[in-house]
Amino acid sequence: MKIERITALFIALGIFIVAILALPIANIFFKQFAFDLTGFLSAITDQGVLKAVGLSCFSAFLAVLVTFVFGVPLAYLLARKDFRGKALIEGIIDLPMAIPHVVAGIMLLTVFGLSGLIGGPVSPFLRFEGALPGIVVAMLFVSAPFLINSAREGFQSVDPRLEKVARSLGATEWEAFRKVAFPLAFPQIFSGAIMSWARAISEFAAVIMLVGFFPMVAPGMIWSRFYSLGLYEGMRVAVILLLITLSVFVGLKYLQGRLYAEH
Amino acid sequence: MLSIRDLSKKWADFSLTNINLDVKEREYFTVLGPTGAGKTLMLELIAGFHRPDLGEIWINDKNITDLPPEQRKVGFVYQDYSLFPHLNVGENVEFGLRLKKIPKSETNKKIRHTMNLLGLTHLSKRLPKTLSGGEQQKVALARAIVLDPDVLLLDEPLSALDAQTQERLRKELKDLHERSGVTTIHVTHDHVEAILLGDRIGVLSDGKLIQVGAPDEIFRKPKWEFVAKFVGVENIFSGKSELKEGLARIDIGDALIEAVTQKEGKVKVCIRPEDILLSKRPIKSSGRNMLQGKITEISDRGTTVRLKVDVGRELVVIITKRSFLDMKLGIGSGVYAAFKASSVHVI
Questions:
Q1: Which ipTM did the prediction report?
Q2: What is the model's pTM?
Q3: Taking CB atoms and an 8 Å cutoff, what residues of chain B touch A168?
Q4: What domains appear along chain B, each with residue ranges and CATH number?
């Protein structure tokens, strides 16, 4: 079959960008498994590594959960209602994607640090520095925009008349949301949650600046091992994190594909 | 049954103004108007999707103006049917009944009855996206009427369908209304649809309900030039009317037209194109108006032919294809156009 010129051009351009993305991934796996398989095997049985990777996954999950509970209703409001200050709120939501994460870390420290605006007064009951809540807050700050924006687009793609019809059929506002808008927007909410989780798990700077190195998350451990023990020590943890993220990504994307197909 | 009193609502770029309407129990009421006249917004106000700025809506002597949509007992079918795409046909029809938390046996009985009524039983497990437009429309109707609404609101339910399906579903709508007896308000921009279905018609223009009446009244005796044009009166002339011997003689500039009216002074003369007879020779008939002219344009419409005749001004005439062929008419043919004084409506 003859490929048309524009299609050929697009394929060439696509291959270029895929190569840039795939090469470092392929290279790190190749280097790890071809030259340092024993090092990798020792790393995956290392309790410290497993703990750091597990903490990253768990904290990212909590950050997504909190964003889901508070962010999805906000996304619905942004999709459905017009109100004064809406543009400002949308700007605030997008901002964490645009600023360097060290800046995010400094901002978080001034609010949630031991002498921060919130962190100070609540420190007798709840600590953010050097504790799980700090990791979750830092991850949430940088990852929430992905879920909120995706959920908002999901709700925008649902025809408001479907909810109106649901109301005429006897559904309250909540029932129309729960039985119509939410299930229809769910594939995009789910997609946003995956992106949000991925962004959260990869966060380094904001976590380190607010929480410090302990409790240690996976990116922190990669940095610390690379810095103190060299490239291969850091790479082993990096490969484990990559494998987990990749598996979760592939699994969730498969689920997401099925969700879209159902709708 | 349904009573709308002084209803007004202002949006950023549109207003519905001072709507007053009474729809009787079991009546099929059609609202006719062009795109942008406010037909859907009027239905949405009745359904409770918007809160009016002024006025009241009553159903069965109960003021429902401040009730939320779910408490109004008003069924709604949108132009694109708005079926829930994530639910199959059965689940769509069942949606409202499940919310009511009535016993499963009763729910099933009602669903079976409604699906049978609309011939949907075999589609029960299908998703909306796999249905034809006509089938989707029936599902939307079933979903609304299964709840026994006090009022059924239909927002251009036939406009997205092909001509053949439209005709079939028009009959089915009428039939369904006769069997269910549900009071129905059906909005449309198609005057033929409004006339064929409606017990009465209301004409909506620019957010105002400008005329309400029986189909024949709207069709034959429009009160406004806008209504006349909208229901297919193609010959509208300005003139001056003088009463003489019980008839009005109206000078339209190029001709004198006789009409049965008591109106004097400046008037508009409306003559339906299908009320005009054409002949190659002067016609001896009870028609009191006869104008001589030449054919300037011919449009074949299948069973009818639409002609433009220059009688000093342009007169549009619709005759049957058979008459057209029998008279061997063509561009430039000289003809006489005759119409009765009683066929002339004066505004």
A1: 0.83
A2: 0.84
A3: 47-48, 69-70, 72, 74-76, 144
A4: 2-229 (3.40.50.300), 233-346 (2.40.50.100)
